[in-house]
Design a protein that fits this description.
Order of helices and strands: EHEEEHHHHEEHEHHEHHE
Helix content: 40-55%
Largest sheet: 6 strands, antiparallel
Shape: globular
Radius of gyration: 21 Å
Strand content: 15-25%
Strand order of the largest sheet: 1-5-2-3-4-6
Number of domains: 2
Length: 264
Amino acid sequence: MALQGQIQDFGLADVLQISWHSGKSGWLHLENDVDEIIATIQDGWVMNVEAEPPRDSLLGRRLARNAVLSHAQLGAALRQRNQTQQGLAKILHDFGMVPLELLKQHATVIALDAIFEVFTWPAGTYKFVEGPVNPDGSWMEPIHIERLLTNGIWLVDEWRALRDRVPSLEFKVVQRAALPEESAEPSFDDAMFLGEQPSSPAVEENERVVHALCEGHAVDALLDISPFDRFETLKCVVHLQEAGYIGYDNPSLPPPLPVRDLGT
């Protein structure tokens, strides 16, 4: 299966669609002037994602910020990596520093972020090399291509708008209000029947997780300690911010942007 070209001419979504519906297995090489991403694909699933330069530092930072790994342990593991050229995840696992379940959780989030970044590339190349793959040795959970397509296409349209609504990644996030109980709010139809104004939009489960993590962390750190990918986390932050549940601990913060009218 020969599939290669320029991302600016034939987008990543189209490449993933073809890979998915063809049912072929192989390696999808994605490259721009800065990064190279290689996704191992098998039967519609992304089984592994490798990056050049490697993203071991991101894995180490996430684990340290989540207090899964001490800074001393991280330093020792990085020295071992430099000496042996082994991947950081393998070293952490072999030395029993991090449970396998947590390694896979964080490695999967980093893999999602790497692929979602490609959706925002203004230019680059892609090449799919068909062949039998061996997913052994992967430290991430398999990701179905449909998930990448659904979120990736949305990301292309919404990422910049979401990012613009967060004043600075360095500002600390604080909780401004407690979230409503999940069963406390009447539904839209119930509120109308009772003669009440409909309640505010429901808070999603992912938003509840992010809200619990918000207090005292800068946005940049929050993106690392969240169990979700950066796009999903930022969506939660913006929704919570605009609903008044969180704010920013910065006295010079300008007033919030008005809510966009998507109908105009």
